[in-house]
Design a protein that fits this description.
- Helix 2 packs across helix 5.
- 11% of the residues are buried.
- 67% of the residues lie in helices and 0% in strands.
- The chain has 245 residues and is mainly alpha-helical.
- It comes from Microbacterium aoyamense.
Length: 245
Amino acid sequence: MAGMASPEDRGRDVVTDPLRDAADTMRAVRDRCVWTQQIDHRALVPYLVEESAELIDAVEDGSRDELREELGDLLWQVLFHAEIASRDAEDPFDIDDVARGLTEKMVRRHPHVFADAVATTPEEVLVHWNAAKAAEKHARTSVLDGVSRHMPSLALAQKLLGKAAIVGLPNPGDPVEPELVEVRLDEDARVRDDPPASEAELGDALLALVVAARASGWDAERALRERLRVLEGEIRGREQTPEAT
């Protein structure tokens, strides 16, 4: 791996590779920073979660500068994990291996771009993607294999509803008409006139709402995040009013 360009080289406008420089910077930090040296993959997970959340904030509610910065912070996490992996005594790999594997996978999953397959609609693209993914993951025995339990609950619910539809599971997995969703919300979840009487019924009500979101092509997790942003604004506004207590 090539070394970083020196300050003198940068001053002469020598062409550099910013991604390579970032990887080299990560290596230097790992070599010389006593805090970084003690971090392993597991210890790094909370920072990955935090940086991912901050990137989502930047995408949904931030400026272009914030988006660029948060993308960089998330990239640093990838470089960090790859650098840790490169020093594994039994099965090392580095950022070049990660990038190479990613490129190969994306080429396989886009035969309509890199081969002679044809896809003229997003649905046809998805067919090619799923076929390539199924070939790669042939050892999987369940549609649930690879679904992370660490996803936020609403996002996981939406993901599992899609998996349920794949295996032909009856409602609430199957897509339904909006008026049928309203009936389900009334009869099954009882969210219109009667609040849930237990946590189990609350779970039914929440799942029914995710069914409604999926039937309309909405993202339940994003919908709640955006509504909570409105609530945050209302709270901050109340704090700034003279009558706030």
